[in-house]
Amino acid sequence: MSSFAKKVEKRYNLFFEKITTNKNGIPNIFSPVFLTHYYIIKTFKPFLNLSCGIFFDIGSGNKPYSFLFNNHIKKYIGMDYRKIALTEGYSKPEIYGDGQRIPLKKNSVDTILCTQVLQYIQYPDCLIKEIGRIIKPDGYIFLNAPQSYPVHHREYDYYRFTRNGIRDIFERNDLKIISLEQNGAFWLYIAHMFTHYFTYRIFRNVPGYFLKSLFGLLKIVLTPLILLFNVICNTCALLADKFDIEDSFTLNYTVIAKKEA
Question: Fewer CB near the last or first residue (10 Å), C or N of the chain?
Fold first, then answer.
């Protein structure tokens, strides 16, 4: 890809991100990942009063969920993997780390947030063990991890997790699960796959510079239709999901866990 094409792609991505996120950096209903973030917020909200004190965000990015917790905590510490943080252009975190060795002392934080990170950790047991080490007794963990999700950040994408898998990894590390909730069912799962494919994947692997340029231009022209498609899929999925009690299909699981004294 030429330098000009890369510049056009970068500008388009920035434009698309601006349209599809709100002021907190949370994807809105125009976004292909709206449903994931909608359910993260929905399933965290009933437990926000459990957060307090020193708050540690693992995989903090631009700290999009800080607005949920800021009124409950005293200090917010973010940690991210240096290479991803720099590549994605995230704001600089307080700490750089890979999650398998966290540079904090034992029993040093009151609350831990970890959203959409566990799948990127080559040895997820190490991360959960480290969480158990650094969190204080009676401290709470807010975690979200995928069961069904397209492969992304391919270099770092290792795992998907079932309900049993999540329960097992927490119990092995002596952390008590207070709540383990699936994020939507079949229709939400299908809608996410459709919106993700038509937004990110449909023209991604076109061979040759000419065809890449042609389909890249076509994607720009079709952007209003892509946004409309996302709104329709996201809205229909939320409505249909209210009547779906099937538990075999889901995008993610939300976990609220506690380190008992």
Answer: C
